[in-house]
């Protein structure tokens, strides 16, 4: 199993002073985080995409290119590129360029996005939410297959044989389908033969098993080789020396982020009780000591019938710079070896 981290490069207010983090300092800390993740042997680093005042990740490929210059082995991917609001030609060019800079370490996770601010910003109608994604995914996969194509759709000017360059270093640039809880999205990924990245930010892991099974059935029904299926999970997680230390470092930022999200989306404010449940054995947070987190990962793996990749969303603890650094170190040096079986035999 591959283990990695995702960043949303969010700016948070210091709970003690109320001051917002400096954007330049936060960007430097993001790059330091991926550099450290590479040094401690983590497999993948993902950068999110948001278009709002408190986020620095509106151009993830640019941040990942900077990270490529500071790393050697770690794979670099979008956490989810909002394909519906992007030009597939430009997205492919950006990540093909990243693949050349990183010597073959680029990947793309594409999705429709859980936030909608990109749609009006780039002039798209939310009523076309599903149609936009289906059409643009079709175009992106065709571009990946060969540089020159004939293509026509509803939402973009036709392509009449023009070439799309540069081409990536890898023979086939990996493209994952990022999904939430929509059954049709799981079926689409299986039918198209794409690796699946499931965002699980609350509830329990068990409730996603029927959806993952939809993916696996659709995969087989489409005639794809069963051994090539790949299921990944993106979850909120943080590692500390103890369960208590991990929870205390992670809670303030989590509370702020989900309070803000709730205000925007009409959710009730988060509570300490919810957080404690999510960190417990039946919740979907991977927060605790190395032993606690490794056991939780094993639980996720068993529950979903085997997963290929797990990425931690740690950005809610960005104010705790030293704790963040230590969490990444522990994930690479203590948790990952257990999960990979180096200590289990």
From TrEMBL:
Domain of life: Bacteria
A GO-annotated cellular component: cytosol
Coiled-coil residues: none
One Pfam family here: Bac_luciferase
UniProt-recorded Gene Ontology molecular function terms: monooxygenase activity; oxidoreductase activity, acting on paired donors, with incorporation or reduction of molecular oxygen
Keywords assigned: Monooxygenase, Oxidoreductase
Domain Luciferase-like residues, every copy: 17-303
NCBIfam families per UniProt: LLM_2I7G
Protein name, per record: LLM class flavin-dependent oxidoreductase
Protein source organism: Rhizobium laguerreae
